[in-house]
Amino acid sequence: MKKNLFTILTTVLGAFMAFIPLHAQELSMSETLVKYDKETRPAIQVILEPETDAVKKAWEDYLKDEYKVKLKGTGLFSNKDVLSAEEVKINEISSKKLNFYTRIVEKGANTEMSVFASLGYDLHIGKDNYAKEFAQLKKITVDFLNQYLPAYYQHLPQL
Q1: Average pLDDT of the residues of the chain
Q2: Dihedral (C-alpha) 43, 44, 50, 53: value to the nearest 10 degrees?
Q3: CA 56 to CA 81: how far, in whole Å?
Q4: What is the end-to-end Cα distance of the chain in Å, rounded?
Q5: What is the pLDDT of residues 56-87, one digit of tens each?
Q6: How many CB atoms lie within 10 A of CB 125?
Q7: Residues 117-148: tens digit of each pLDDT
Q8: φ, ψ for residue 104 (rounded to 5)?
Q9: CA 30, CA 49: separation in Å to the nearest integer?
Q10: In which region does residue 75 sit, left (phi positive, over 0), alpha (psi from -120 to 50) or beta (all else)?
């Protein structure tokens, strides 16, 4: 009797699981180097599942709401891969004005987002020369992901 009940429950559970949509979350974060404006720069790089335009919009909104930073590079007649805000003050990163960049591009079926900054033309923020500032770049990126991704996955259409 117990064996029959176990078989029935296993079969029902298996059939039920077949109809539940499972979304494999594609997310990886690393420290890397990106080439921008003929210079190699240290960056925080994230590979994530949401489509590129949605990530750009969410990132722009997040920076504007949380840090009062308006990125340039998207709009009615523009959709650049690299979004920028030059000579902005983000106290969480540095007390000095900085140039803040984000490259957001399609990478296969995913989106690649690289966040990097500089304190001047050739003073690129990296873990070797500006460790505290680089850690803050990473924190801002992680905070964005923690806010954006749960909402993104919660609103995916159910199959």
Answers
A1: 85
A2: -30
A3: 9
A4: 36
A5: 999 999 999 999 999 999 887 778 999 999 99
A6: 26
A7: 999 878 999 999 999 999 999 999 999 999 99
A8: -125, 110
A9: 16
A10: left
Mapping DSSP to helix (H, G, I), strand (E, B) and coil, where does residue 89 land?
Answer: coil
- In this structure, which amino acid lies at residue 136? Q
Query: Helix axis angle, 52-67 relative to 131-154, nearest 10°?
Result: 120
Structure tokens at 11: 């079969």
Q: How far is CA 29 from CA 22, 32, 139, in A?
A: 22, 9, 12
pTM for this prediction: 0.81
SS3 content of the chain, % helix, strand, coil (to 5): 35, 35, 30
Coil, strand or helix: which one is 56?
helix
Is a pLDDT exceeding 80 seen at residue 3? no
